[in-house]
Amino acid sequence: MKPLIKWAGGKTWLAKRAERIVNDISPERVVEPFAGSAAFSLHYEFDNVILNDANPALINLYKQLSSGYEINPDEFLLEADFFYAAREELNNALLSGQDLGEKEAGLFWYLCKHSFNGLVRQSKRAGKFNMPFGEYKGIATPPDTKEFMQVAKNWTFNCGCFSEVDITDAQLVLIDPPYEKTFNAYTKDKNENLQERIVNMLGGYDGAVIATNTLLPELTHIYREEGFTVYKTPVRRSISCKGSGRGKTFEMIALRGFSKKQFRRYMDGLQPYYPKTVSI
Prior knowledge:
By secondary structure, the protein is of the alpha/beta class. It has helices at residues 12-17, 19-25, 39-44, 56-66, 80-96, 102-114, 145-151, 194-202, 217-225, 263-266, and strands spanning 29-32, 48-53, 156-159, 172-175, 208-214, 229-237, 247-256, 271-272. It has 2 domains: 12-54 and 160-271, Vaccinia Virus protein VP39 (Rossmann fold, 3-Layer(aba) Sandwich); 73-145, Adenine-specific Methyltransferase, domain 2, CATH 1.10.1020.
């Protein structure tokens, strides 16, 4: 199944490249502590998944659709005034701390699908959605609720800190946090000591892990110290609001706990990366 929304750093490309090593372990339980668009798990349609994200509007969308909510496109208009009113309504609901429901799920989907370049963006300080209106020919087609209910019938959706997610019984964990010095500008997440906290979470876990992030010498050093095999891999970014910010770039991919060890034989695009200097 394709992702329901477009999200900075989506991992459909990773899911496709990793098929041979993932299918080799056939994980029954998968955990995504930083779910985002859940592109990885939706691609494989794993039977049992824990999706966690700190974004309440995102998790609410998943919960409502998995409970049978069907988005009615006739409730929305492709007009700037309507878009900004919907954005304000959703922001007010989030700031009030009220329980989110079907209405907020619909608003969130509408904003995600009809913002400029499909960009989901939040202010760093207050966490308000601030993406601008986009020019589209018509209202987008809503996600297929019945298909999502079937795929996610045994999935768990949690809104909270990644460090509180139980990964004990997982056969595969995908570590895809807000990227260092890159996509964290699109969210309200705070990255203080983030990598240290991630490493601590994985300390006692001996299952398979795939970790991705910006290609930085200090990050590759951290993951190699924790027993990961680290590569760089080319990816294409398409979500930047500026055309100059889109195109091919390299990202880090770190792997640990798989039965197949010669990863470059089983995954396309992996390249060695051994920076000469590392600043910690």
